[in-house]
């Protein structure tokens, strides 16, 4: 067993990649360490990251835990952007998604509903891992317009590579398309494809 072990069990991409990259930055050339992963997609993404950066590795599996023995062979990474490697394996589900159908949350008083939906969206950035996508349709598109109380949070999530889709038909219906300031104005095909690919969809 190597002296240095990166335990990435129980976390999803990009965290295992980031943890591996961080350890590489602290590891001397021609020195080895172990990475433990219990998610096949994360394992495959770490392997691609190591291969592209010409870093030697060997993978073994024991039950549901993958052990990747990494030997640092290059001083500098040629492909340092770890997050770009976090795409799902063919046929797998891509994280989870939030779907917002209104600019308020729940069936109670409207004022309370607006407070709750703002709290919900402002808190998403604190989740780990963050969702793969946020989808806004029907009245939910109003959350993505200029002047929205959650616009700053949505912009921050978009910078963190969270996909944000806004229904174009809905934006036209509410006459807010010109005021949409975050995300991509999308269509029903893209929205349904995104939801179908998500491992789990949350409707606040």
Walk me through what this model shows.
- This protein is an alpha/beta fold and 204 residues long.
- The protein has two domains: 81 residues, Translation Initiation Factor IF3; 107 residues, DsrEFH-like (Hypothetical Protein Ychn, Chain: A, 3-Layer(aba) Sandwich).
- It is built from six helices and nine strands.
- The radius of gyration is 20 Å and the shape is elongated.
- About 2% of the residues have low confidence.
Give the arrangement of secondary structure elements.
Elements: E1 5-7, H1 15-26, E2 32-37, H2 40-52, E3 56-62, E4 65-71, E5 96-100, H3 110-124, E6 133-136, H4 151-159, E7 163-167, H5 168-173, E8 184-186, H6 188-197, E9 200-202
Parallel strand pairs: 1-2, 5-6, 5-9, 6-7, 7-8
Antiparallel strand pairs: 2-4, 3-4
